[in-house]
Amino acid sequence: MLITTIPLNVFKEYDIRGHYPDEINSQFAYLLGFALMEVLPPQNIGSVLIAHDAREGGPELAKALYNALKTRVKSEHIQFAGLEHPGLLAVHNIHKNYGLIIYITASHNPVGFNGFKIYCDSLPIDSETIKLIAYNMKRLADADFKFLHYSEEIFEQPPIEEIENNEYINALLSEPDFCQEKYILKIAIDGGNGVAGLIARELYEKMGHEVLELNCVPDGTFPNHHPDPSVPDNLMQLRKFVVEHGCDIGLAFDGDADRLGVVDYQGQIIGSDRVFIFLIREMMKFYKSYSDYDPAKPVHIVYDIKSSRHIQREIEAAGALPHLSKTGHSNMMQKVAQIEGALFGGEYSGHYYFKKDGLILNDAVYSGFRILRFIEEVGPEAFEHLPHDLMVPEIRIPYPRELVKGLLLHVKDSAQKNLNPISFTEIDGLRIEIEGGFLLMRPSNTEQKLTIVIEATSEEELCKLLDFTIAVLEDHEERLKDRAIDLKDLEPTKSKFGPH
């Protein structure tokens, strides 16, 4: 079989992701293995760890990747963990120190997608490295190399070396915990038919709580709902379940268990920014519990450009230093790793990044663990006392990437004339701060879309920012003439208002 075409659209800012099997298939995985060895020489890597989530094609892709890698890396230096929770891989890596970890997943994407998250020296590879991989895959595919003519029938099946759950669970439960009297919680978990179901119940029960499960059997067809807890519709089943069964809290996970959604005891969705506030309070308490805690030593917490204004205030109120980052798991993990004294970081998307034993843990099961540590001490009613503003749910509209720079210049100019802005932040798109809220516009890193986030202290301020957004986009569309922009998602309907 000859590989002739590489779909370049699958190479994203943070990872590789595309349609399975039309774009991402065993041929692609096989060639990826060779390209990785060109970009990341084996002598610099040492050992390799491969695993996959529940999606269709995971074992097939892992098998092809393994057979390519073992042409350059001794097979005894390649561990294949099979179907696994990535948080467990990260904790396992604390002791093993793999030079390269490849996790086969399309994260929160719907059925019909698969892909690869690649970590070198415990951190995700950056966008420049992904571009180099794409270049080398195309170069190899364009050449008529003998190794590109292969038969899957002769592929060696990699032996599965499972990692015990206890390694992960014991590492978490051994962390300091000085709470004397605890609430015994009744917890509902929605695994989204992803890999969280492999470990979440066992961990939370060993904390001493009662756990009820929803959709916790891994199933790559995701028969119950799309595995993305950041979308409110995907939490409907959990919300009803929490109320019907009298649960104190509900936790929801995406396909590869790195994104967390939270529902309170009343079945109300707790927005990611409010979850982040809980985690700031919990992690500062946790940090101060260490015997070598030094109050004179600065603590740093990272947050992304989409985050609520309450996040910076909460970080400062907790006695830590806030650091703003570009959106995206690669950007966030790199930022948390680079800042000496960084405790953890969080994103609007529901991803949280914890510095643990020198590594960065992007694990929603661990995020849930820390939330439960906080709630078991203060009680489930604590959610009612969190601050919140009004926020339009994140809007994503089709928009050509090559036009975004011109649009943002136009938006900035118009804002200076019409919004009385306090400040502009341009590290990732354009964020405009006004007295009553903020507006963010930025290009998506994974699609030809414009992402818009709006937060305000009142409905009046929210309508002002929303009306400005519609007007400035319509004005820019008129200037472009032949470029149609779909604005239907920006209609200022009442249903979009309310606490998130």
Automatic annotation (TrEMBL):
<feature type="domain" description="Alpha-D-phosphohexomutase C-terminal">
    <location>
        <begin position="417"/>
        <end position="467"/>
    </location>
</feature>
<keyword id="KW-0597">Phosphoprotein</keyword>
<dbReference type="InterPro" id="IPR016055">
    <property type="entry name" value="A-D-PHexomutase_a/b/a-I/II/III"/>
</dbReference>
<feature type="domain" description="Alpha-D-phosphohexomutase alpha/beta/alpha">
    <location>
        <begin position="298"/>
        <end position="380"/>
    </location>
</feature>
<dbReference type="GO" id="GO:0016868">
    <property type="term" value="F:intramolecular phosphotransferase activity"/>
</dbReference>
<feature type="domain" description="Alpha-D-phosphohexomutase alpha/beta/alpha">
    <location>
        <begin position="10"/>
        <end position="139"/>
    </location>
</feature>
<keyword id="KW-0479">Metal-binding</keyword>
<dbReference type="GO" id="GO:0005975">
    <property type="term" value="P:carbohydrate metabolic process"/>
</dbReference>
<dbReference type="Pfam" id="PF02878">
    <property type="entry name" value="PGM_PMM_I"/>
</dbReference>
<dbReference type="InterPro" id="IPR005844">
    <property type="entry name" value="A-D-PHexomutase_a/b/a-I"/>
</dbReference>
<dbReference type="InterPro" id="IPR036900">
    <property type="entry name" value="A-D-PHexomutase_C_sf"/>
</dbReference>
<protein>
    <submittedName>
        <fullName>Putative phosphomannomutase</fullName>
    </submittedName>
</protein>
<feature type="domain" description="Alpha-D-phosphohexomutase alpha/beta/alpha">
    <location>
        <begin position="167"/>
        <end position="267"/>
    </location>
</feature>
<dbReference type="Pfam" id="PF02880">
    <property type="entry name" value="PGM_PMM_III"/>
</dbReference>
<keyword id="KW-0413">Isomerase</keyword>
<dbReference type="InterPro" id="IPR005843">
    <property type="entry name" value="A-D-PHexomutase_C"/>
</dbReference>
<dbReference type="Pfam" id="PF00408">
    <property type="entry name" value="PGM_PMM_IV"/>
</dbReference>
<dbReference type="Pfam" id="PF02879">
    <property type="entry name" value="PGM_PMM_II"/>
</dbReference>
<dbReference type="InterPro" id="IPR005845">
    <property type="entry name" value="A-D-PHexomutase_a/b/a-II"/>
</dbReference>
<comment type="similarity">
    <text>Belongs to the phosphohexose mutase family.</text>
</comment>
<dbReference type="GO" id="GO:0046872">
    <property type="term" value="F:metal ion binding"/>
</dbReference>
<dbReference type="InterPro" id="IPR005841">
    <property type="entry name" value="Alpha-D-phosphohexomutase_SF"/>
</dbReference>
<dbReference type="InterPro" id="IPR005846">
    <property type="entry name" value="A-D-PHexomutase_a/b/a-III"/>
</dbReference>
<keyword id="KW-0460">Magnesium</keyword>
